[in-house]
Amino acid sequence: MSVAIFDKDGLCVSVSHTPQRQPIGGAKAEVPDGTKPNAIWWDGEAVQSPEPCTLDIPQVVELGASIDPITLPAGAIAIVAGVRQRGILVIPTDQIGSVPVDIRGSCHGNFVVEVRDYAGQRKNAYPSIGDQLDALWKGGEALEEMQARVMAVKAQFPKE
Questions:
Q1: According to the lineage, what is the superkingdom (predicted)?
Q2: pTM for this structure?
């Protein structure tokens, strides 16, 4: 048998034959050899195996977008960009990039939310309004070429 050490939130921080530290505000329990820390959690009374999370977490959001509140299951902890959250999951959308979301405890799952600014990227990549109006005025081949340039920008910076 091995010994698992759990933190105050019930997350397993280590499993070993000879635990080197005592839990601070958490718990200690015997577990079968070979148990992985992310495969168990402490519910306050006993060691439990988490269920896979079925949360509706968006994969892509627009910069500055407001995301509907996502309620975490009882006993679940979300670690979002390194910050622990309980109750309601809050995903920051104030910076472009990948936001890692790691759910632990009563359920488990690893998600990544991409925060994009497709509107800003498109705005900077589109031909100028003057060039677009000129192509519209000229019509024919100039208009077709402008439509192709605009569609290429849309393809380069998709909404999703």
A1: Bacteria
A2: 0.67
Query: Which residues are CB-contacts of 68 (< 8 A; sequence separation ≥ 6)?
Result: none
pLDDT tens-digit series, residues 138-153: 989 999 999 999 999 9
Dig out the tokens for 50 from the structure. Answer: 């988490």
For β-strands 60-62 and 107-116, DSSP reports them as parallel
Nearest-angstrom CA–CA distance, 71 and 120: 31
Q: How far is CA 104 from CA 57, 74, 143, in A?
A: 15, 11, 54
| Alpha-carbon torsion (107, 112, 116, 118), positive or negative | negative
The pairing of strands 83-85 and 76-80 is antiparallel
* Domain boundaries defined on the chain: 2-49, 52-116, 118-156
Instruction: Classify 134 as helix, strand or coil.
Output: helix
Compute the distance between CA of residue 141 and CA of residue 147 in angstroms, rounded to an integer: 10
Mean pLDDT to the nearest integer, 42-65:
89
Token reading at 3? 């010994």
Q: Which token pair is 131? A: 């060039």
